[in-house]
Amino acid sequence: MKVTRAVVAGGLLVATVALVALIGSCQGRGGAKAGAKTGPPGAAPMGEQAKAAVRVVRAVSQPVADQLELTGSVDAYRRVTVASEVAGKVVEVHGDVGDYVTRGKLLVVVDTQMQEAQAAQAAAAVEAARANLGKAVDSVALQNDTTGITVEQARKQVQTASTQLAKAQTAARATETKVNNGVTQARVAVQSAETQLQQVRRGARDQEVAQAQAALEMAQAQFDFAKSNYEVNKRLYAEGAASGTEFGQALASYQSARGQLEQARSALSLVREGATTEQVRLAELQVQQAREQLALAEAQTDQVAMSQEDVEVARNAVRLAEDQLRMAQAGRGQVVVSSHDINAAEAGVHQAAAAHEVVLVNVRKAKVFAPLSGVVAARNTDPGDYTGVGGANGLFQLLDIARVYVSAVVSELDVAKLHVGQMGTVRADALDAARGAAAPTFAGRVDDIAPSAVMNQRNFIARVIIANRGLALKPGMFARVELTVGAPITGVVLPRDCIVEEYSEGKQIRRVYVINKSNKVEIRPVTLGSTTESLVQIASGVAQGELVVLLGQRDLEKGQEVEPQEELPPSNQPAQ
Question: How far apart are CA 41 and CA 19, in angstroms?
């Protein structure tokens, strides 16, 4: 429960009047003692120092919600200077100081006669540029009809010749690969037959038998691989997945491997059994056949030369087709020149259209609209004024006060208790005075906390955003922000008026004036804990039950004897 100081003061006044009346009555009945020095009525006897009467309150223990009160000034959420983007004479002004305008409302109209004339001139220039473009397009279309067919035919001939060249090159590579493989296989066959003949004539040894056996195994492995490869290519060729060249190479490799396998078998047989006259004759015949096959394979190298000649013929055909294409394209030189005329005409159209759009934009900008919903704080123009582009003061000053904010001052001792997003209650003293009663409260939210203290101070600035219900809060008003920063804590509690704050060497010091049992003044530093609107919790410096001066502390001195007049203790209900 809060104590109303006016009521307490009234009680003291009544008690004082009663005391004076009582003293006067006593003096009237008995008078002063003989020889005693007297002073003014009600004063202490001469030679005795009067004790100062001080109002005190007894420190009590009670739970107090951990609240923090911050103060600061209300400011608009946004301030906008509305200026003109074109220069000219102002012909219309809508809105005055104090008016509430919505976003998009017409505020100022600037004369546009000159811009409208320029717009008509620019529109005529656009039409002229479009007419020139149409003439250039018609001219190019006529020339294209006469030259386009020739160029297209020459281009197709180049494509056909290039395709034939690619086919000839592919065939030449296939022929060369086939011939080279045949010559290689034939040479291998000659060497194998000659080796077998030598073995037949010379007879066999154990080492030669082993070599012949190894040769047979190798020939068998090569035959198995060649056979498998041949069967795969045969199937792929039948399915159309392999070319004839690939199939022919696989067949030749298969036949060669089969012959080499037979030769290896015969060689091993000769080595083991020894050669007869017929076997020697057969080996000589195989050598002769192998040499004839080699000669036949080498004779096929002429096919490689012929395929290279086909490639050269196809390449010459490509060159001829390309020459004809260049000649056809050269015949379109006049068309290219005309195309440049089209490009120039199109650029002229774009340039004229852009100039026209610039003028139209200036015409539209002659009407100045409110960029946001808010209150007119200043009007700096009247009809007939000349306005330039921009300007420091602009035409109007608009304030967005649907939301406002308070830049609240926070002590360095309290800043750690705050965090962004914290909710609190906001009051404005001006609304108290205007309504003659308690001001309405507003919900506020901590939106920002300065990362560093104000220069040469120990205070921080916290920005509290407020939804301005009824637009009651005005920029410049003094506001109080109450934030609950912790749960209720039980401890020694005093009224806020008991605390004396001082600054020494830039550091804040809080003190209280305590009346001891001898009714003398003690000045003690205190540490504060939780706070409310009217109460403060004492963390250290004052014990429960001690008397603390409520008002007039700066008129007292340490050790001074006083007459304490105790008032009701602070409310024992925790602040909400």
Answer: 12
Contact 63, 526 (CB under 8 A): no
Computed over every residue of the chain, the mean pLDDT equals: 79
Alpha-carbon separation of residue 73 from 373, 450, 451 (angstroms): 22, 16, 20
- Is residue 121 within 8 A of residue 103, CB to CB? The reply is no
Tokens encoding 286: 């195989």
Place of tokens 């479009």: 130
Bin 74: left if φ > 0, else alpha if -120 < ψ < 50, else beta. Answer: beta
Whether 244 maps to a domain, the answer reads no
Q: Which residue has the tokens 């199109």?
A: 346
3-state secondary structure 154-190: HHHHHHHHHHHHHHHHHHHHHHHHHHHHHHHHHHHHH
| Strand-pair category, 478-495 with 423-428 | antiparallel
Other C-beta atoms lying within 10 Å of the C-beta of residue 510: 17
Task: Convert the pLDDT of each residue in 170-202 to its tens digit.
Answer: 887 887 787 788 788 888 888 888 887 777 676
Contact 552, 58 (CB under 8 A): no
Q: Does residue 321 form part of some domain?
A: no
CA distance 474 to 476: 6
Expressed as residue numbers, the domain containing 474 is: 54-74+397-566
Query: CA-to-CA distance for 212 and 271, rounded, in angstroms?
Result: 7
Res 178: pLDDT: 79
- Ramachandran area for residue 281 (φ above 0: left; ψ -120 to 50: alpha; else beta): alpha
- Is the Cα dihedral 326, 327, 332, 334 positive or negative? positive
Over residues 18-63, the pLDDT tens digits come to 333 333 433 333 333 333 344 444 444 544 557 889 999 999 998 8
Amino acid 24: pLDDT: 40
How far apart CA 352 and CA 346 sit, in angstroms, is 10
Same domain assignment for residues 474 and 507: yes
Q: Does 449 map to a domain?
A: yes
Structure tokens at 45: 């006897």
CATH code for the domain of 67: 2.40.30.170
Q: pTM of the full predicted structure?
A: 0.42
Same domain, 68 and 25: no
Tell me what pLDDT residue 570 has: 60
Q: Dihedral sign for Cα 200, 202, 203, 206, please.
A: negative
Percent helix, strand, coil in the chain (nearest 5)?
A: 50, 25, 25
Q: How far apart (Å, rounded) are the C-alpha atoms in residues 162 and 319? A: 9
Measured CA to CA in angstroms, residue 197 lies from 137, 204, 219, 296 at distances of 87, 12, 17, 22
Residue 88 has pLDDT above 90, yes or no: no
What does the DSSP assignment read for 232-279? HHHHHHHHTSS-HHHHHHHHHHHHHHHHHHHHHHHHHHHHHH---HHH
165 burial via Cβ count (<10 Å: 0-12, 13-18, 19+): buried
- pLDDT per position as a tens digit, 210-229: 888 888 889 899 889 988 88
Considering Cα of 221, then 227, then 228, then 230, what sign does the dihedral take? positive
Decide if 252 is inside a domain. no
Q: How many domains does the chain have?
A: 2
